[in-house]
Amino acid sequence: MSGGEVAGILVAVFWAILVSFLAVALARLAQTLRATTKLVADVTEQAVPLLADASTAVRSAQTQIDRVDAIASDVQEVTSNASALSTTVASTFGGPLVKVAAFGYGVRRAIGRKDVPAKPSRRTVIVGRTLSSARRSRRAERADRTDRTPRDKKD
After folding, report:
1. Which of 10, 13, 109, 123 is the most buried (most CB within 10 A)?
2. Low-confidence ranges of the chain (pLDDT < 70)
3. From CA 119, how far away is CA 112, in angstroms rounded?
4. What are residue 2's phi and psi, to 5 degrees?
């Protein structure tokens, strides 16, 4: 055998090994493509009903949103009517009611003032001392008694 023949046999053997590897790789690739095709078919079968259900759900949600929108507009109208009514009542009855309440307060205060002596709100300072309102009123009563004439005491 010559060197060319050996080289030819080696090239043929390597070529056969290469073709074998390529055949195995192509067989696995074909198997992967078949599995992928089956997976896509299964996904398609399941996706179509899911998309139909999703479409139905979206339509139902849109219907509910329309109803809620109608309710919200009705609530807004009721709120504006209540506000207008409140303003009307306040302007119609507010002034007279405030006047009646002020009059009642004045009458109660006037009736209550007859029995209760007026209390001074400040303390009196005598020679650097502060007197309480009770002591101050007792001193005022004593001063009133000493200022009266005998004719006043009989009355």
Report:
1. 123
2. 113-134, 136, 146-155
3. 13
4. -95, 170
